[in-house]
Write a structure and sequence with these properties.
Radius of gyration: 31 Å
Shape: rod-shaped
Strand content: under 5%
Distance between the termini: 106 Å
C-alpha cells in the first residue's frame, strides 16, 4: 500500500510540474505575440516615414530639374 501511495504522490508532483510548464509556455506565447504586434506596428511606421521621405526627394529632384514643385510654378 505504501508503494502505491508513493507512486500517486510522484504522479501528482509530475502533474504539477506539467501545469507549471504549460503556464510558462502560455506566458512565452503571450510575450511573443506582443513582440510580433510591436514589430508589425514599427514596420508600418517606418514604411510610412520612408514614403514621406521618398515623396519629398521626388519633389526636390523635380524642382532641381526645372519642373514646378507640387502645387506651384517656377519663378523666372
Amino acid at each position: 500500500m505504501a508503494a502505491i501511495e508513493a507512486e500517486v504522490s510522484r504522479i501528482r508532483s509530475a502533474l504539477g510540474r506539467i501545469r507549471t510548464i504549460n503556464t510558462k509556455a502560455t506566458s512565452i506565447r503571450t510575450g511573443a505575440d506582443a513582440i510580433t504586434n510591436e514589430a508589425t506596428e514599427l514596420k508600418r511606421e517606418i514604411s510610412e516615414s520612408l514614403s514621406v521621405i521618398e515623396e519629398a526627394l521626388r519633389t526636390v529632384q523635380g524642382t532641381e530639374a526645372g519642373e514646378p514643385a507640387a502645387g506651384g510654378a517656377i519663378d523666372g
